[in-house]
Amino acid sequence: MESIRSLLGKTIELKISGYKIPIIGELIDVGSDILVLYSENRYIYTPVHHLQHMKVIEEAEDSSHVNKEPILDHAHISFRKMLMNARGIFTEIHLGGASSIHGYVTSIMNDYFLFYSPVHHTVYIPLHHVKYLSPYPPNMTPYDLSDSHFPVQPAAPTLSRNLEQQLEKFQNCLVVFDLGESPLKAGLLKKVDSHIIELIEAGGETILLHTDHIKSIHLP
Q: Is 47 among the domain residues?
């Protein structure tokens, strides 16, 4: 990681998997498994394993007058710790492609976490599919809703320690995968066995999916 640490304080172009547009910003911090960029007045936290390439594009301008105090605590920084620190803070989570979701991290399990969105409500997100997370300033609320319209601490469902066990609880329930980006990713979850999901789509056809390629799950 020393080759990456040598770029601290420089303006870089970062290309991450599943995200078409390079992220340009100042490299602020480097953790054991995470990179932190300051871009367009926001902090962006991206797991290192999504890095495809990065390069210096120019020296960072002197921005000492800009308040860059991070919203999240950077002590002993890691991806899981940043998720824990983001609980209760209005945050954008990007899952690749056009899949971006806004709301709050509420619970973190072994290989997935719960995210509460005013649009999709409770969403189950595998840890390895998060391309980046970016907290909003403390004075911002989701979609400019008042606190009375948006519960920061929604009622928590009973959670399993890993995602496949949680999916088994949804057998014979209607589910939506990947925020409904495809009609083949919404239907009746019939069975989960050895990472293979059996899904019945609207027309009655059976679709088989692998859990490793599911970016998010929510119940309609």
A: no
The pLDDT tens digits of the residues spanning 105-126 come to: 999 999 999 999 988 989 999 9
The answer to whether residue 178 sits within a structural domain is yes
- Which of 99, 121, 113 shows the shortest CA–CA distance to 180? 99
Cα separation of 196 and 208, whole Å? 7
Tell me, what amino acid is at 173?
C
Q: What is the pLDDT of residues 15-59, one digit of tens each?
A: 999 888 899 999 999 998 999 999 988 999 999 999 999 999 975
Residue 206's domain comprises 163-218
Alpha helical stretches, state H, 6-108: 79-85
Instruction: Sort strands 11-16 and 23-30 into parallel, antiparallel or unpaired.
Output: antiparallel
Q: Which of 72, 100, 106 is CA-nearest to residue 88?
A: 106
Q: Is 50 helix (H, G, I), strand (E, B) or coil?
A: helix
Q: Tell me, yes or no, whether 202 lies in a domain.
A: yes
Amino acid occupying residue 54:
M
Instruction: Label residues 89-101 b or e (16+ Cβ within 10 Å = b).
Output: bbbebbbbeebeb
Give pTM, 2 decimals. Answer: 0.89
Residue that is written with structure tokens 């997935």 in the block: 112
Q: How many separate domains does the chain show?
A: 1
Dihedrals phi, psi of 147, to nearest 5 degrees = -60, -30
Residue 144 main-chain phi, psi, to 5 deg: 60, 25
